[in-house]
Design brief:
The complex is a heterodimer of chains A (432) and B (243).
Chain A: E1 15-17, H1 22-31, E2 35-38, E3 52-55, E4 62-66, E5 71-75, H2 80-87, E6 92-94, H3 105-110, H4 118-121, E7 128-134, E8 140-143, H5 149-155, E9 164-174, E10 179-186, H6 190-199, E11 205-210, E12 222-229, E13 243-244, H7 256-268, E14 274-280, H8 281-285, E15 291-292, E16 303-311, H9 312-329, E17 336-341, E18 355-363, H10 368-381, E19 385-386, H11 396-402, H12 406-415, H13 425-430
Parallel strand pairs in A: 1-3, 2-3, 13-15
Antiparallel strand pairs in A: 4-5, 5-9, 6-9, 7-8, 7-9, 10-12, 10-14, 11-12, 11-17, 16-18, 16-19, 17-18
Chain B: E1 3-7, H1 12-23, E2 27-32, H2 39-49, E3 53-57, H3 66-71, E4 79-82, H4 90-95, H5 97-125, E5 129-133, H6 146-166, E6 172-178, E7 180-181, E8 196-197, H7 199-212, E9 216-219, H8 222-231, H9 235-238
Parallel strand pairs in B: 1-2, 1-4, 2-3, 4-5, 5-6, 6-9, 7-8
Helix pairs in contact in B: 1-2, 1-7, 5-6
Classes of the chains: A alpha+beta (432), B alpha/beta (243).
Chain lengths: 432, 243
C-alpha cells in the first residue's frame, strides 16, 4: 500500500521499506535511489513522498534520559506525543513544539520545526544536542552544531535530503504545571493585530487566528492568543479520548459559506477585547490533534496548506495585499494562522526569518493553484519565502528567490553524493 | 508485589502490552528465548516509565525447565500474560509432522505447561490473573490454517476450563481472540485495513479487559460479530467455501 502525506495530495505510487538493523538500512540505501525518509506522515505536501520511502516510524525506542540536564535520547521514529505522555507528569516539556504532537523526532529535525515560542526559543534545532545519521555511502555520523557544522546546517531543515536520521539527543525544559494561563485579544483589523503582537511580545507563547474572509477595513481582524505555563504543580497529564473523522467528507462540504459560518461562530464566541482562560497543554498547543483524521473533512481530493513568511519591514503591506487577494477570491480557509517570528538561524533551509508568517488551508480544487501562484508573486515581491513542509506546488523560481543559501545546500548535496540517493517528489520539483 | 510476567515477550503484541502495563505502573518480567535481545526494549520501557524491567530466559518447548523458571522468579508476579504464537506453514504442516508438532506444541502444549504452574501458585495465593492470547482462527477450522487454528482452539478450551477452576480462588482468566493484527507475523499478508488492528490497540484492549475482569475479548471488537457469522454457517455449506 502506498503512503500518502497529510494533505492526501498528490497520490504517488511508492514502495515502503522498513529496517531493523543498521546493516539492513545500509543495504536498502546501497541498492536503491530516489529514497526519502518518512516519519508519521504529517507534512502536508510531497516532501516525504518518493518512489522509495524509508519508514522510520517503527524506530520508536527511548534510549536514555538525564534527570539533571533534561537531555533525552530517543530513536528517530518516536512521536512528540509519546515524549509528552511520559515526561509531562515528571515535569518536563518540549522546548519547541509545532501545532501537532503527532510528528516524529526525525521529522522535527528534518523540517527544523518551530512553534508558538519561536520569538523566544527559535527552531527545533536549538534543542538538538546531536543526532546520528546514515549518509548516502552508508556511513553513520554523529552530527552536532560544533563537530559537523555543515552537516548540521544542511540536515536541520533539510527535508530528509541528507540521509536517514537514526536517533537524537534533545533537551527538554522544566515545567511545573500542565496548564497555561492564556490571554485572548480580539482585534478589529490588521493594524490592531500587529500592535497586539508587539504589545504582548514578552509572552513566551503567541499565535493569532485570522478571519481570511473579512473584507474592507476589517481585513486582518484576529483572535490573538498568548500565554505561559502556570506554576501550580499540577502535572496530571493523560491521554484524552479522541474523536475521529471516520471517512472522507464529500468535497462540497467545505465551501465559502460553511467556512464563513465557522469563522463567524469562532470569532463571535469571544465577547471582550481582552479575556483570560486557563487551558491545558493539549488545548493550547494541539487543538486539532483532538480530532483524528481531520484532514478528511477536505474530501478525497485532498488539501494543502500555504504558509509563507515576510520580513518584518514588509509584513504589513504584504499581508494586507495577500489578505485582500484571498478575500476577493472567495476561497475559504478554515484555519489561517498568523505569527510574529524571531530571528533566523544559520541552517540553510530553515523556514523562519524575523517577520510575520501566515498559514492557510485550502482544499484542492479548480482555480486554487492559480490563486496560489498569484500569492507567490506577492510573497516574492515583498521578499518572503514559502515553507517546504507544507508545500506541494511551489515553482523552482519562486522557491529559490526566498532562500539565499540554496546554492550552498545544492553544492553540499552534490559533493557528498546525497543528490543521487535521496530525493523527494518535492526536491525534484524545486531542484534541491 | 508489582510484577506482571509476559511470556513470548518478543512478539509485537507482547511488546505493546508490556508498554501498556508499564504505563499503568506495573513492573515487568519479560520472558523469551535469547532474552538478551530484548535489552534495548527493556531500556525503552525504563526510560519511558521508570518501572523495573527484568529479562528472563524461557524456552516454551523445554517443558521440564518451566517449574525451575517460575521458582527462580524472585518476586512472584501479580499476573501472567502469554503472547506466544507460532503461525507456521499450513501446507508444510500437512505433510511434515515436525512442523505440525511445532505449531501445536508452541501454541498449546508449552503454554499449558507454564500456565499449570502459575495457576497452582495463584490458586494457593488466592489472587492473580492469567491472560492467554488465542485467536479467531480457533473459532472454526479452515483449510488455510486449521493446524494453527486447532491449537488455538485447544488453548481457548483450556482457558475456559481454567477460568472455571480458578473462579473460587478469585483468580481471573482472560481469553484474548485477536483478529488480524499488523505485526511481523502478518507482515507479508495483504490485510483489509478496517479489520486490522495495530498492536497498540490490541494491548490497550487487553489491559482494559483484564482490569475489568472480562472473560473473552475479541479485538478489534468487530471480530466478535464476524466470527458469530462464520461460526453459524452450516457445515454442509462451510465445507465448500474458501475463506
Amino acid at each position: 500500500m502506498s503512503l500518502m502525506s497529510w494533505g492526501m495530495y498528490p497520490k504517488i505510487k511508492n514502495t515502503v521499506f522498513k529496517f531493523d538493523k543498521e546493516a539492513t538500512l545500509k543495504q536498502i540505501i546501497d541498492t536503491h535511489d530516489e529514497l526519502i525518509p518518512y516519519g508519521n506522515g504529517r507534512s502536508y505536501g510531497d516532501s516525504a513522498l518518493s518512489s522509495n520511502i524509508i519508514n522510520i516510524r517503527p524506530k520508536d525506542y527511548f534510549i536514555d534520559f538525564d534527570e539533571e540536564s533534561g537531555l533525552l535520547h530517543v530513536q528517530a521514529g518516536v512521536l512528540l506525543s509519546e515524549i509528552l505522555e511520559s515526561y509531562v507528569p515528571r515535569g518536563w516539556f518540549l522546548k519547541v513544539t509545532p501545532g501537532t504532537k503527532l510528528i516524529t523526532i526525525g521529522g522535527a529535525i528534518a523540517s527544523d520545526i518551530h512553534g508558538k515560542n519561536h520569538h523566544v526559543e527559535g527552531c527545533f534545532s536549538e534543542c538538538v544536542q546531536e543526532f546520528n545519521i546514515m549518509l548516502a555511502d552508508g556511513e553513520v555520523v554523529t552530527c552536532s552544531k560544533e563537530a559537523t557544522p555543515a552537516l548540521f546546517k544542511a540536515t536541520c531543515g533539510g527535508m530528509g535530503l541528507t540521509g536517514i536520521i537514526l536517533d537524537a539527543k534533545i533537551y527538554l525544559k522544566k515545567i511545573n504545571s500542565q496548564y497555561i494561563d492564556q490571554t485572548t485579544i480580539k482585534t478589529k483589523n490588521l493594524k490592531e493585530t500587529f500592535d497586539a503582537f508587539e504589545e504582548y511580545s514578552d509572552k513566551p507563547y503567541s499565535v493569532a487566528w485570522i478571519d481570511c474572509l473579512a473584507k474592507g477595513n476589517k481585513i486582518g481582524k484576529c483572535l490573538l492568543m498568548v500565554g505561559d505555563f502556570r506554576d501550580d504543580g499540577k502535572l496530571d497529564y493523560k491521554k484524552k479520548n479522541q474523536l475521529s473523522i471516520p471517512f472522507n467528507f464529500p468535497s462540497f462540504a467545505l465551501n465559502n459559506w460553511s467556512v464563513r459560518a465557522f469563522n463567524w461562530l469562532y470569532y463571535g464566541k469571544v465577547k471582550e477585547r481582552v479575556s483570560k482562560q486557563r487551558v491545558d497543554i493539549d488545548t493550547f498547543f494541539y487543538p486539532l490533534d483532538a480530532i483524528g483524521h481531520w484532514n478528511r473533512i477536505y474530501g478525497k481530493n485532498g488539501f494543502t496548506q500555504y504558509q509563507f513568511i515576510l520580513p518584518k519591514e514588509t509584513s504589513y503591506e504584504g499581508l494586507e495585499e495577500i489578505l485582500t487577494a484571498i478575500s476577493k477570491s472567495g476561497k475559504g480557509s478554515f484555519l489561517a494562522v498568523l505569527k510574529l517570528y524571531g530571528k533566523a538561524n544559520d541552517n540553510w533551509l530553515s523556514f523562519p526569518i524575523e517577520g510575520y508568517s501566515l498559514a492557510l488551508d485550502f482544499k484542492i480544487e479548480k482555480g486554487l493553484f492559480e490563486l496560489l501562484d498569484k500569492l507567490d508573486e506577492i510573497v516574492v515581491k515583498y521578499e518572503g519565502r514559502i515553507y517546504l513542509t507544507k508545500d506541494v506546488r511551489v515553482s523552482k523560481e519562486t522557491f529559490e528567490k526566498g532562500y539565499p543559501h540554496i546554492e550552498t545546500f545544492r553544492q553540499y548535496r552534490k559533493e557528498n553524493k546525497m543528490d543521487s540517493k535521496f530525493q523527494s517528489h518535492q526536491s525534484k520539483r524545486v531542484g534541491i | 508485589m508489582s510484577y506482571v510476567l509476559i511470556i513470548g515477550a518478543k512478539s509485537d503484541i507482547a511488546k505493546a502490552t508490556a508498554r501498556e502495563y508499564a504505563k499503568y505502573g506495573y513492573d515487568l518480567y519479560l520472558a523469551a528465548r535469547n532474552s538478551e535481545e530484548l535489552e534495548e526494549f527493556a531500556k525503552d520501557i525504563i526510560t519511558r516509565t521508570q518501572r523495573t524491567v527484568k529479562l528472563v530466559e524461557l524456552d516454551i518447548l523445554d517443558y521440564k525447565s518451566h517449574q525451575a523458571f517460575y521458582d527462580n522468579l524472585e518476586e512472584k508476579p501479580l499476573g501472567v500474560i502469554s503472547a506466544i504464537g507460532y503461525l507456521g506453514e499450513q501446507e508444510k504442516a500437512q505433510s511434515d509432522f515436525s512442523e505440525a508438532q511445532q505449531i501445536i506444541d508452541t501454541n498449546y502444549t508449552g503454554v499449558v505447561s507454564l500456565f499449570n504452574i502459575t495457576a497452582d501458585d495463584f490458586e494457593k495465593r488466592r489472587s492473580g490473573f492469567i491472560v492467554g492470547i488465542s485467536s479467531v482462527a480457533g473459532d472454526r477450522g479452515r483449510k488455510s490454517n486449521y493446524i494453527y487454528g486447532s491449537a488455538k482452539a485447544a488453548l481457548a478450551a483450556y482457558l475456559s476450563g481454567l477460568r472455571n477452576r480458578l473462579y473460587d480462588a478469585q483468580v481471573h482468566v482472560l481469553t484474548v481472540k485477536p483478529g488480524f493484527v499488523a505485526t511481523k507475523m502478518t507482515e507479508d499478508m495483504d490485510l483489509p485495513e478496517k479489520l486490522t488492528a495495530q498492536p497498540e490497540k490490541v494491548a490497550e484492549d487487553i489491559y482494559n479487559a483484564q482490569q475489568k475482569g472480562k472473560n473473552v475479548l475479541y479485538t478489534k471488537w468487530i471480530w466478535k460479530w464476524v466470527m458469530l457469522i462464520i461460526r453459524n454457517i452450516p457445515e454442509f455449506q462451510f465445507k465448500k467455501m474458501s475463506i
